[in-house]
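DM from R.C. (forwarded with permission)

"hey, sorry to bug you on a friday — could you get me a structure for this? deadline for the figure draft is monday and I only need the backbone to look sensible"
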Amino acid sequence: MFKGGNQLVLLENGAEYFPALIAELDAARREIHLETYILSNDTTATEVAAALMRAARRGVETRLLLDGYGSRHISNTALEALRAAGVAVMLFRPERNLMPLRRGRFRRMHRKLAVVDARIGFVGGINLINDLHGRRLAAPRQDYAVRIEGPLVADMHVAARYLWQQVLWSRLGLRRGEDAWLKPETQAVGSQRASFLTRDSVRQRRVIETAYLRAIHRSRQEIVLANAYFLPGLRFRHALIAAANRGVRVRLIVQGHSDHPLYQLAARALYRHFLENGIELYEYHATELHAKVAVIDQRWATVGSSNIDPFSLLLSREANVVVQDRVFAGQLQASLENALARGAHRIYRRAWRRVPWYARFASWLAYGTVRLLMGIGGYAQTYDAMRGRASQNHRETE
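My reply, with the result:
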């Protein structure tokens, strides 16, 4: 559902995102809720953690939700310091079992979300990690977030509260603090229309994918899609090819440098299929592409945490903002055009046809491996979703 009256600010990379986030954390008066997949041990994460602790010490109700796998390397000392300062910290599905293929391993909380005083929201793909952390990168990772003010923040607040209470219930077996959350402000502060979408494995299993597909089906001129881990399913591939066949210019921007080589190899198994059907394909080599964004017909745009792959679209908890606004879409497209000019290599059909057979075989082998992992995760998703619905029904009848 799209809501008008919002003011949206596109934030490119951590250089714009972290100062904006920390400024709002330091200005908070009553409540902070922050979710992230990765909280690292680097200086950037330490600065955000320090802002959270400052807020908690001055009496702000401060909550931090971390994914148990993505943030598994955070030190106990750092967590203890946060809690000692008064920050409520919880882990979504903490890592207790080292078996790599155990049931449910791939069901993660991949959202990057913040709500401050139920008035200001942030959503995007940027983890709490320095843009240059962990790899020898020539430039900061390419990524995006959005600062949101207006009626849409109420939807973000509801989603934050719901997941916090779900995790609290799973940890403690009961719900607490439901009345402590603020009432969101809903007055208009701008003129931009947007929708906040979340994906889970029970009620909203295909919400983000459906939003993409609806916009692709309606496209008439151009699709620009930049995605870090691009391994779409059959419906998504068919929608892109159908758009290209009716004359829409479709440009896909994917990773050239990847932190997951198996995944990149699997994604390349689909290159020939796209190229043979008139889709333009670019690998971004200037640095690591971590974005999960798209612009369609220069009026529809999305920024968020959801990759176009089975783990994001079918297993993980994700959050995206979808925007219907030419100014915002134009800003995002201009940034993507700059990224293309700065460091993207176009893959041409004739050149890709000359790829050796053993390289193609390796790509399809990697693709099969990823699909197998998805199948294992899909079993876990179905099992846990059924168990979750049964548990919810039981609680509702008590």
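R.C.: lifesaver. Residues 78 and 385 are 33 Å apart (CA to CA).
me: no worries. The chain is about 40% helix and 25% strand.
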